[in-house]
Specification:
Length: 108
């Protein structure tokens, strides 16, 4: 999970483009290894939940695709704070502190 910030004046466009995400991007995301991705909007904060067996490998595969590069170029115009998907950059992930499914498993 990680966070980005959308520009206030571009929020509606950001929501619209994600609700109408490109078919090619959706399939490349799955092909890269992501099982699930969910985005929530809270004010100007975008909370991004990505589930993959190995997040780092999946994002590395995805970021090499032309469609992801094109998508990121579009997102740069909409975001006030974005994650660095470049080879030298890194994504700042949130720390998980509670997981109902994992924690209840110890009692079942």
């Amino acid at each position: 999970m990680f966070v980005q910030k959308v520009r206030d004046d571009r929020k509606k466009e950001y929501v619209k483009i994600h609700r109408e995400a490109w078919k090619e991007l959706l399939f490349e995301t799955k092909k890269a290894g992501f099982e699930r991705q969910i985005l929530w909007l809270f004010g100007n904060n975008i909370l991004i939940y990505s589930m993959a067996e190995n997040f780092d490998e999946a994002i590395t595969r995805l970021e090499k695709t032309d469609v992801h590069k094109k998508w990121q170029a579009k997102m740069e115009t909409l975001l006030s704070e974005a994650q660095d998907f470049s080879d030298s950059g890194r994504i700042i992930k949130l720390e998980k502190i509670y997981d109902l499914e994992e924690q209840i498993g110890q009692f079942i």
